[in-house]
Amino acid sequence: MTEGADLRDTTPWDIQDDTLHEECGVFGVIGAADAAAICALGLHALQHRGQEAAGITSYDGSEFYSRRGLGHVAENFATGEQLAELPGHMAAGHVRYSTTGGSGLRNIQPLYADLASGGFAIAHNGNISNAAALRETLVRNGAIFQSTSDTEVIIHFVATSRFPKLLDRFIDALRYLEGAYSLVCMTVEGMIACRDPLGIRPLVMGKIGDAVVFASETVAFDVVGAEFIREIQPGELVRVDFAGNIESLRPFGDPAPRPCIFEHVYFSRPDSIFDGRAVYDVRKQIGVQLALESPADADVVVPVPDSGVPAAIGFSQQSGIPFELGIIRSHYVGRTFIQPSDSARHSGVKRKHNANRLIVEGKKIVLIDDSIVRGTTSLKIVQMMRDAGAKEVHFRVASPPTGYGCYYGVDTPERSKLLAGRMDLEAMRDFIQADSLAFVSIDGLYRAVGQEARNNARPQYCDACFTGDYPTSLTDLARRESDAAQLTFPDAA
Fold first, then answer.
1. What amino acid positions are annotated as catalytic residues?
2. What pLDDT, on the 0 to 100 scale, is given for residue 344?
3. In which residue ranges of the chain is pLDDT below 70?
4. Is 489 exposed, middle or buried (0-12, 13-18, 19+ CB in 10 A)?
């Protein structure tokens, strides 16, 4: 198969197939009379991180209560009757887009189990990259799993740990894990929040009066009226009891952190603060770097909405080229849109994006988007600009080429399906049919987040999707690749 033409001809234009899907979002609150209602509101603010399913578990001092369902938060926690099923002063919630384990009711979090020490509920953002190996060991030793989620291995290790205290059993369980995790857990003793030793996935702490809250992003605190206190540090575990006492532990030492840089590029809402910096400001600075590194002779800067808007503003301000909304986005196209025919499927991009012809016609356009994944949506948007009369279309991308898969909680296509994993820059430009194509450099991205450049010997962020430099071992991937190699190249003997 030749690179380019066949894929353009055969790929269905399902716009959701050509994006990096959000990982998940977690929220927790302890010490609030209306804990479940606060949790539901916080999850609304995190809906962008997972739109497949939502769940909340609460605790009233004697029993745990759970409500979980497929779909958005508003579909499952919109009424007083629904929230009345979740009494108590402590609640944890989760919005999900499946990475490990697939979709289905049994994988909706928080996951819950009755342990010898009492109830235990856990909500997880991230991905455990040795979960399959751990699960295999646990099953061989007699464990029975109720889900296919990687998160359930944590529960089993907590249950089987020989330490007498629950907190020690929990820490013991975490020592088995490889990969990324931000966790909010509920026990009969209170709430535990923790972040993996490299801090790959985000987690923040705040307060509403005397209540303590945890969330994947600060924007959830804005919505529930909480005061942002601080980030949970990489490798930190914070325990809060029902008297409001807060204890911070660092059981994994003090390794150099590697937070996910793609939170700044795409995943976090622009009105959040991540790693001490306003996401909106970082995205504008990425646009500034793009304009400095890859200027274009053009009449107008057009963002691909909504994620390309801040970078387009920065590009416009640095270059002096006017910013205009040359593409209008419909906010009423959902992930579960019913597609009755092939022709409807091929109109996927136009359902979500439509050219603003009066802005585009006769102009040389600079299109700004956050990333290119498979490239199919980028191709359609370039075609849309040309159909609307654009004289030239120059494509600028507010991240380096995404050429590697993510194994830390982002649903990324395998490398062979990533455009940058298969093609060089000129081939990618030809594929999307732009007049020119440029990505921000990895050092430009680091400058936008406040660093002088990437420290190649000791990178400050997890940027593996751009560089292939993974900050942890990838046990399950290595096993899959080994198994595939044995199937492909059997022993000659």
1. 24
2. 43
3. 1-23, 98-103, 333-351, 487-493
4. exposed
pTM of the model: 0.90
- Enumerate the H helices of 54-186 as residue ranges: 73-76, 80-84, 131-140, 152-160, 166-174
Dist CA 406 CA 19 (whole Å): 13
Mention every residue, 6+ apart, whose C-beta is less than 8 A from residue 469: 459, 463
CATH classification of 19-258 is 1.10.20.10, yes or no?
A: no
Q: What pLDDT, on the 0 to 100 scale, is given for residue 22?
A: 53
Omega of the bond leading into 110 within 30 degrees of 0 (cis): yes
CB 187 within 8 A of CB 168: no
pLDDT value of position 333: 61
Residue keyed to tokens 């622009």: 270
Tokens 């490990």 belong to: 100
Q: Is the separation of the CB atoms in 433 and 379 below 8 Å?
A: yes
Rg (CA), the chain: 23
Q: Which residues of the chain form CATH 3.60.20.10?
A: 19-258
Q: What ranges make up the beta strands (E) of 322-402? A: 327-329, 353-355, 364-369, 392-397
Return the half-sphere exposure (C-beta side, CA atoms, 13 A cut-off) of residue 319.
29
Give yes or no for a contact between 92 and 186, defined as CB atoms under 8 angstroms apart.
yes
- Domain 278-467 in CATH 3.20.20.450? The answer is no
| CA nearest to 260, candidates 179, 165, 142 | 179
Asked if 367 and 395 count as a contact pair (C-beta separation under 8 A), the reply is yes
Round to whole Å and give the CA distance between 354 and 407: 34
Residue among 155, 189, 151, 153 nearest 169 (CA): 155
Q: What is the pLDDT of residues 432-482, one digit of tens each?
A: 999 999 999 999 999 999 999 999 999 999 999 999 999 999 999 999 988
The DSSP call for residue 323 is: B
Residue bearing tokens 């006769």:
362
Distance of CA 232 to CAs 182, 195, 336, 374, Å? 9, 7, 34, 34
Give the SS3 label for residue 123: strand
**Cα gap 414→405, rounded to integer Å:** 6
Residue with tokens 């269905």: 12
Q: 242 Cβ partners below 8 Å, 6+ apart?
A: 30, 31, 61, 89, 90, 189, 190
Q: Which residues contact 476 (CB under 8 A, 6 or more apart)?
A: 129, 130, 131, 132, 133, 407
CA distance 236 to 146: 29
Residue ranges of the chain that CATH labels 3.40.50.2020 = 278-467
